[in-house]
Amino acid sequence: MRNRTSYSPLASSEIGILWMTYLEKTMTDRMLRYFIRHADGDEPKALLTRLQAEASGFIDRVRELFEQERAAVPVGFGDEDVNERAPAMFTGRFDVSFVRVMAKITSGLSALHLTMSYREDIRRLIQDMSTCSQRAYGDATELLLALGLLSRPPIVSPPRETEFVEDLVYMKGQGVLRKARPINLVESAHLYQQMETNVVGFELMTGFAQTALEPEVKRYFETGRELARDTVDMIRAVFMESDMSPSPSTSGRASESTTPAFSDKLMMYCTNILTSFGLGGNALGTSFSLRSDLPLKLGALMTKVFNFAQEGGKLMIKHGWMEEPPQAENRPELIRS
């Protein structure tokens, strides 16, 4: 029988997972510290405080794993990336909406990372992070609903009988002389989630644009703001064509503050995470769509989002903000040296 106590080095995938986790958790930790200072109400503050403590604990666990392997600990984000004394960047309970979106992202990442992990301690770490993310999503959702600050997807009559598709017309989309069928509820579920996330993203990009220091970074966030608005408008039009009226709301908005609360580096990385999530969400929504025009519309949107992400990467490299992920040994270079 295999000795479970024998040492097993980290697999390449596990090193990559830990690296990604460290950057995301150090960013989240700094943002939560700022949000706690400006929290509006006891319940939001308690939620944010708990999440910050959990993020800090995960940072320590990941750092310890790197040190055990005698691996370089990533730089991530630190005190220099947040100004906790800056005025509130957002009003109301926007911080709770942001936490809810991040919980969606980290829940998905944990599910993916778990399937890429082999060592028991790494799997346990990811399972613990998944539990915290799911609880954060649930708590943020319940809090916003209780406060009347979170809109639900459109309400429709439940089906009374089952049916099967009998004609290929079901898959045809909008045409010049043809009206497409109404979107089905699987399609609407994915579309609404993208719409809801971009409503929050619009306010986030507004706050980032107002407080960024570098002029080209400001312009980049302005582009992100318009991209979020275009996404919401496009998806709302699809719903309205199906006689469904979505009304996703945000629990707050960007304030009038122009004082930087976060470094340009941190805001660019945060935007990178949200953009990657947007690309994944669009791809998933496209794969579940049976109406031929929806993948075309989402595909055009994905192209814009991808180009936006590429421009962000170039900006981060230009300013020295993109930390390089771990890599395998460069054998040709070692041979030449």
Automatic annotation (TrEMBL):
Q: Which Pfam families match?
A: DUF3231
Top-rank taxon: Bacteria
Q: Which Gene3D superfamilies match?
A: 1.20.1260.10
**What is the designated name of this protein?**
DUF3231 family protein
